[in-house]
Structures are given as structure tokens and as C-alpha cells.
Write a sequence for this structure.
């Protein structure tokens, strides 16, 4: 009796093991069938999604290319007639702008100079302040302060340009006028501008490009790998040395991108500049009332006719070429920096 019980005890586990093996085989078979079906289903779905996504990407890319080509052709076709009628030399190298006179002249040399000088000075002021502000927010400022300052900077980016112009008229122009009165007190040759001069325009442009430069530069600095910073500090460099010798060079491509966008914002601005610059065609001296390429178009397009109107389109073409040259040169600098 005891031998029979022991035999049953010995055989019972074998039966359980065999049943377990059979169940596992059946389960694995079902899983393989399910995986096969899911793989087939997902591959079909994947193919459909990829086809649709490829078509959407192609359409979007085509729209972008068509838009750029269309704008370029439109500017060329509308800008060339005035060059043929008035002459390229008269437009680009003459400083006399009297389009409504009995003997009209369409020289935009001083206007070109003003755009170059104004944009350069705005970048010269705005970029260092913007980059250093980005360094402060990303590396120096405590987190509670960063949470306050960063939304404020982002808010600056959303303020309409006309608001900057109104603030310039109310605050900056009176201040510049007081300085102008003290500097040119007793002068009989200086034409007083009431504060609407090149300095006011440059300061407004410098403030307007700050949000772009700060936001993009800060993002570039935060994307620098931590091991670069840790390695520099581990080798005995101070925090300031690490920032200026390691982190800023590593974020150079992002900072250059910020500068490119800042230049585009500065050279393409019209509304704020038209309010604070005075809109007179003069040589771009600090306390002269000046006119930029953009403000020349904005201020006169409403009443310009015939040749005058065509010349304004030529000014737009010059501005378009000017922006393209700046962007191409800055992109070359960016590529060289990435290769190094």
C-alpha cells in the first residue's frame, strides 16, 4: 500500500509538469499568432501613416519654396522698372530725395547709410546685453528670480512694435531733446529735432531685439552638456572662466542664430522707427532726424504715384537684397564656427 502511494506521489508531479509544458506551448503559440497579426496590422498602418506624412511634408516644403520664389520674383519685377526709368546710379548713389518736386530726384544713399548704421549700432548695443542677460538667467540667477525675469522677457517679445514707438515718443524723445539742447546750445546751424533722431531709433531697436537674443541664447546655453561644465570646474577653472571659456563657445551656433534673427528684426522694423526717428532724409549723425529703408516705404506709399511709387518698390528690392546678403554672410560665419 505504501509502495502504491509513493508511486502515485512520484508520477503526480510528472503529470503536472507535462500539463504545464503543454499549457505553455499553447500560450506561446497563441502569443505568436497574436504578434503576427499585430505586426501585420502595424506594418500596414505604418505604411499608410508614412505615405500620408511624406505627402504632407512635401506639400509644406513646396509651399515654402514657392513662397520664397514668388516673393523674390515679385520684388524683382516691381523693382526693376524704376531702375530702368531713373537709373541705378541716380537711385543708389545720389543723396537728394525730392520725389514730389517739380524736378524730382530719387536718391536713397543717405537712407541706405541710415539703415546700415542704425542696424549696426542696435546690434552692437543689444547683442552684448542680450547674451549677458541669457548667461545671468541660465547660470547665475537664483531660480525664484529666474521664474520672474524669464516671463517678463517673453512678454517683451509679444509687445507690438507700435507700443515701443509710443514709449519712445513719451520717454526717450524728451530725454534726447534735453541732451540735444545742452550739446547744441547757441548753435545757429544745427537743426533741432525735438529728440526724434538716430540715437532714439537705435535705442528703441536695441530694446526690441533683446527678447529674441535673450531667449534663443539662453536656450543654447542650457543645451550645453553638463559634463563640459563639470570637466572645466574639475580642472580648477572658476565659474566665470567656465562660462566664458567653455559654455559660451559651446553654445556659439545658437548665439549666432540669435544674432541673425536680431538683425532681421532690427533691419525690418518700420512702425516704431517711424515714430521716433523723425523720418527726414539726412546723413546718419547721432542727433540728426533720419529715415530708414523701411520707414521710407511706409511713410510715402500711401500717396506715391507713377515713378515715385515704382522707386519705393525699388527701395523694397534694395532692402530685400540687403537682408539676404546679411543672412548669407552670418550663415557662413555660423558654418565656419561649427566646422571649427
Amino acid at each position: 500500500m505504501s509502495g502504491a502511494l509513493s508511486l502515485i506521489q512520484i508520477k503526480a508531479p510528472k503529470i503536472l509538469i507535462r500539463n504545464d509544458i503543454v499549457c505553455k506551448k499553447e500560450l506561446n503559440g497563441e502569443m505568436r499568432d497574436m504578434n503576427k497579426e499585430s505586426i501585420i496590422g502595424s506594418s500596414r498602418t505604418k505604411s499608410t501613416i508614412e505615405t500620408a506624412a511624406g505627402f504632407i511634408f512635401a506639400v509644406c516644403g513646396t509651399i515654402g519654396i514657392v513662397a520664397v520664389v514668388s516673393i523674390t520674383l515679385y520684388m524683382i519685377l516691381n523693382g526693376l522698372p524704376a531702375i530702368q526709368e531713373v537709373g541705378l546710379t541716380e537711385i543708389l548713389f545720389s543723396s537728394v530725395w525730392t520725389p514730389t518736386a517739380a524736378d524730382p530726384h530719387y536718391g536713397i544713399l543717405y537712407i541706405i547709410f541710415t539703415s546700415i548704421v542704425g542696424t549696426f549700432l542696435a546690434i552692437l548695443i543689444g547683442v552684448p546685453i542680450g547674451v549677458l542677460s541669457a548667461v545671468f538667467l541660465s547660470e547665475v540667477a537664483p531660480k525664484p528670480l529666474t521664474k520672474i525675469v524669464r516671463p517678463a522677457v517673453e512678454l517683451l517679445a509679444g509687445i507690438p512694435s507700435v507700443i515701443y514707438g509710443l514709449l519712445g515718443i513719451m520717454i526717450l524723445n524728451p530725454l534726447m531733446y534735453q541732451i540735444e539742447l545742452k550739446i547744441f546750445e547757441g548753435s545757429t546751424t544745427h537743426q533741432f529735432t525735438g529728440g526724434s533722431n538716430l540715437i532714439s531709433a537705435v535705442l528703441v531697436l536695441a530694446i526690441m531685439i533683446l527678447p529674441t537674443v535673450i531667449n534663443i541664447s539662453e536656450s543654447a546655453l542650457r543645451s550645453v552638456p553638463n559634463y563640459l561644465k563639470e570637466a572645466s570646474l574639475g580642472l580648477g577653472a572658476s565659474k566665470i572662466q567656465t562660462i566664458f571659456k567653455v559654455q559660451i563657445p559651446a553654445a556659439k551656433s545658437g548665439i549666432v542664430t540669435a544674432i541673425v534673427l536680431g538683425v532681421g528684426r532690427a533691419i525690418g522694423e518700420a512702425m516704431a522707427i517711424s515714430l521716433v526717428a523723425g523720418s527726414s532724409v539726412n546723413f546718419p549723425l547721432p542727433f540728426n532726424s533720419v529715415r530708414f529703408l523701411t520707414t521710407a516705404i511706409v511713410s510715402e506709399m500711401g500717396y506715391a504715384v507713377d515713378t515715385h511709387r515704382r522707386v519705393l518698390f525699388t527701395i523694397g528690392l534694395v532692402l530685400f537684397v540687403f537682408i539676404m546678403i546679411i543672412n548669407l554672410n552670418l550663415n557662413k560665419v555660423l558654418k565656419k564656427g561649427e566646422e571649427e
Observations:
- Residues 49 and 55 are 10 Å apart (CA to CA).
